[in-house]
Design goal:
The structure is a single chain. The chain is built from 13 helices and 17 strands. The chain is α/β, with parallel strands linked by helices. The strands form 3 sheets. Strands 1-2-4-3-5-6-7 form a 7-stranded mixed β-sheet, with helices on both faces. A hairpin with a 2-residue loop joins strand 13 (about 370) and strand 14 (about 375-380). Helix 2 packs across helix 11 and helix 7 (about 240-250) packs across helix 8.
């Protein structure tokens, strides 16, 4: 990994498992904040940084790194003198290699390295394993308790039946995302046949299950003409799946696929001549728009917490700032929720006046943050972040509502629906056990 180009940023490596990124402001800025000399607060990202989903992991890292920079450039986190005074955040990265056992090893290494804030998200199966391990660790070793902040693992069970006091989710869960997509699907009266396809693990299964349930409730006239689960990150040729989708006569595909599993799927669909619509959770980046090209115009729908073409001046400034920070087209994947996550963490640390995991977790339950016009709050009952959702449809750059494209592809997403937080919110069966 090469050092970030931001002024004063350096990287040191700590073996094959992890690397540590230090963020410092310019010398003049540091001198203007003499209190920012306490030991940094270590934040550990455990993510797949090699293998099939390395591109998704690196996209997360860029977002978290940018958010950490912002906190550090304004002086860091203000804590009492007894807690070291104003302190910077220090971001450590650990490669889980897409394997749960590796993620558990990374968790242990992060704790041994002094991290008390753990970040992960690009696998609900991994998140479930980490939650269980953290629950046990915090009970057995209260002097080294940790808090788990989840930015993308959206299996609903993680904040429902398996909710944990130590786990906080900042992404909308799969049922919330599906409900948002359904608002658009409900209006497509020409739609009568859909194909469901997903990754064969907890999240992919949850997406297909919720798609069946919501279609039955809201569009009983729509027939499901095919349903399939495939291995995660192992399929290199999706042509057989694409052929089946086309042969089924489906007018639309509903999928929660992400990373290369989505990109390769849409490429294969284009190559076999499939002309239906894709209703996706993550079709707005990581190569998917370029893979579809003109075939995706008006036919790829994506749900997110935020999209670059959200029609507000604050949103536009936010996106342009990210592109200035990361100008390479292939780095163009910004997540508002990850920025809000770090803002909520900084707020909770200051409100707690401590880095103690229990105090931070209690403060996070009350987190309410805003950035660039996007607001969100943590729901204490289940630790599910509540924020607006948006749905966009793929269009050519320069068409109405598409000022910005994706990854230099010439295609962007026009916002067609904004769902306020209070409407996106769903009830939870969580029975939170608090220490």
């Amino acid at each position: 990994m090469s050092p970030l180009s931001r002024r004063g940023a350096t990287v040191r490596f700590c073996g094959l498992l992890c690397s540590t990124l230090w963020f410092t402001s310019s010398p003049a800025h540091a001198q203007g904040n003499p209190g920012a000399s306490g030991m940094p607060i270590k934040v550990a990202m455990v993510e797949s940084l090699s293998g099939s989903f390395a591109n998704a992991g690196e996209a997360v890292f860029r977002n978290i790194a940018w958010a950490v920079e912002r906190v550090n450039e304004r002086g860091g986190v203000a804590l009492p003198a007894s807690e070291g005074g104003t302190r910077r955040l220090q971001l450590l990265r650990y490669d889980s290699k897409g394997q749960n056992e590796e993620a558990l090893s990374a968790l242990r290494a992060a704790i041994d390295d002094g991290a008390r804030i753990i970040l992960q998200g690009n696998s609900s199966a991994t998140a479930a394993v980490l939650i269980e391990a953290i629950n046990k660790h915090n009970q057995r070793d209260p002097g080294r308790r940790v808090v788990f902040l989840n930015y993308s693992a959206v299996d609903p069970i993680l904040t429902n039946e398996k909710c944990s006091f130590w786990h906080f989710r900042f992404d909308a869960h799969a049922d919330m995302r599906m409900a948002a997509l359904m608002e658009v699907m409900r209006e497509n009266r020409a739609l009568s046949r859909v194909y469901l396809i997903g990754q064969d693990y907890s999240f992919g299964q949850a997406v297909l299950r919720e798609a069946r349930e919501q279609l039955a409730r809201q569009r009983p006239d729509v027939a499901i003409v095919g349903e399939e689960l495939h291995p995660v990150g192992r399929i290199k040729d999706f042509a057989p799946y694409a052929v089946k989708i086309k042969a089924s006569g489906a007018q639309a595909v509903v999928t929660g696929n992400w990373g290369n599993d989505l990109t390769l799927l849409v490429k294969a669909a284009r190559e076999v001549g499939y002309e239906g619509t894709f209703y996706t959770f993550y079709g707005n980046a990581l190569g998917a728009p370029a893979a579809l090209g003109d075939a995706g115009v008006g036919k790829v729908v994506a749900v997110a917490d935020w999209l670059p073409n959200l029609p507000t001046a604050a949103s536009e400034r936010f996106y342009q700032s990210f592109r200035e920070r990361f100008p390479r087209p292939q780095d163009d994947y910004v997540h508002m929720r990850m920025q809000l996550l770090i803002e909520a963490l900084a707020q909770a640390l200051e409100r707690a006046g401590s880095t103690d995991a229990l105090a931070v977790a209690r403060a996070l339950e009350q987190a309410e943050v805003s950035l660039a016009g996007q607001r969100g709050r943590m729901r204490a009952s289940d630790h599910q972040f509540q924020q607006q959702l948006v749905v966009g449809v793929m269009e050519r750059l320069g068409s109405p509502g598409v000022r910005f494209d994706v990854e230099g592809s010439g295609y962007g997403f026009r916002v067609v629906r904004q769902i306020p937080a209070e409407r996106a919110e769903m009830p939870t069966p969580c029975q939170m056990q608090r220490p």
